[in-house]
Amino acid sequence: MSREEVDRALARLGAERDAVEAALLALQEHPGRRLLEGATLSGRTLERWSVAEPGLTLLWALFDRYAEALASAVAVRARRSRPGGAELAELSELLGGPAVTVSGSQLPDTGGPVPVRLVERISLAELLERMNAWYAMVYEVVAATDAVWSALPARIDLLLAELGRVRMLSGSVGVRSGAHPLADDLDGLERELTDLRAEVRTDPLALWRPGRVPAQRGAAGPLTPGAVAGVVDTERFDRAGRALDGVRMELDGLLRLRDEAHDRLQQVGDLLQRADATLAEARRARGEVLAKIAATEVPAVPGPASALRERIGLAVELQQTGQWHRLAPLLDTLEDVAAKELGRARQSLTEVAQPLAIRAELRGRLEAYKAMAARLGVAEDPVVIERFEKARWLLWSAPCDLRAAAEAVARFQQALRPAAPAAQAAPMDRVERVERVDQYQDGQGDQGNG
Question: Quick check: 80 pLDDT over 90?
Fold first, then answer.
């Protein structure tokens, strides 16, 4: 090395020495290291720290050797302002050659069989590289532990606080341990969070997900503290949070059910009352049909849904005893069945009362044709009168033969057309009457379709 190269090397190595010292001091005062020193550890963290903790002591020892070797080189350079050849050779050996004696300090995970050497001689560059590797390993343990301890205890506290609020909510709706699945879920969540708290306290590295493979450690610049690659593993905390949200949502549903159960049961009762009233009307209509309509098959009217009333009684009992989780599905079923029961009653009434509706329609048509006959001026026609009286007798007598009555109404309607020529009306008058009859019949047809 020339004199200029020696001076540049001394300046560079002096700056590296200062940087190494600053990094070691920062690592010494790192909050993660202080917490690790006083903690009771287990699992992966105990395993990693049992290696990293003596590694920090070794780092200081290596730094001392580095500083001593550099100080020796500085002392040689200080002998003369312009060093001679012998001094430059000595400086070259001190700065670039294997001039530093250190104890064997291989990294624990270098892999493969390593020859055991008590001491070895290495250069300053090799010494710096070795310190880099030890520093990276120790710093990863310290920084990862600090990241986990900074993030997860607060997360657990929030989850446990939320768990306490959900427990109070569950108590307000009668959800008790051993008697309700939601309470059992809360018990399980509390046990899981308690175990997680203990794990965070004693084995934080079990909750750390490294972002790089171990072989890459120490490949970066010399003793560079900073953000360690990796993330805190929050998967189990996220899962517990989602489970807690699910329990809270189900409890909210039970709270709504508690507030709405009375009104919903009342609505179910109202539906059944309306169904019973409709069935009673259907039975009355069936009796009237059997008494007043001849030769008609009338379907039977079903009885009330007594089984449904028994289930309503059970629902009321569950409401009074606060068994909301059992009441919820039962009440949903009752609402559906009660609505169907009312529909069934309405369908029965429609089917039973159909003959009466047909008779009423025929009566209405007969009266309408009678009014039309008066407007056409044929109301006094003997044929018209005879056919009207026949239809009227059939429709207002009991039992009523609907088929015969319908035929009589049709004959009365037909009597209105031939009655016009018999009245010797003018040709134009007859045409107008036919048109009026057709218009009237079309209007009746439209009403019937409506």
Answer: no
